[in-house]
Amino acid sequence: MVGNFKKGEWFLALFNLLYILGFGGYYISIKNFEFLWYVAVLVFFFLLVVLTLKKSKFDYTILWGLSLWGFLHMAGGGVPVGDGVLYGYQLLSLVDNGGDFFILKFDQLVHAFGFGVATLFIYHLLKPYLNEKTNWGAVYAILIAAGSGLGALNEIVEFVAVVSFPETGVGGYANTALDLVFNIIGATLAVIFIHVRRLKTARGN
To answer: What is the domain extent for residue 137?
Structure first.
């Protein structure tokens, strides 16, 4: 099956392997066990996509989106910025009530991007079962709920890290709540993208 990969798919696989191995080695060297846990989760999903690619036929938008999401996640926890890491970097001071309640951070941007991609992922899996009689309003609502649900699952993964390792950079309640907000923002933007692309395709036909 792997031998049937297209040239672009091989390039994507190499890109993923390089940054997973690179960041994995880096986190081992600094004994960051929290992000070694995330590396293990990332490897699991990488293998899941690779081993099912022939059947799932994900397009390059989704594959590149997943790859960049993984890279940004690994960089976010390890690239030093000031007194912290990239995940805590404050991009814009839109809201600042002190502590974790700050908008906009790199972490929040990655959440929106990542779970937007996750929503596209779910749509791709559902697409073969949709047709001209589909209630698209209901589908869009389901997609937003599903993308946000995966975001909630991610928070559970982070919670496992919190209870498993003595020190993590997960943050407190406000951080978790804002992560969930940006997850649903990303899912909603993905649905808007799906709607616009679907309308363009329909006009093209």
So the answer is: 2-204
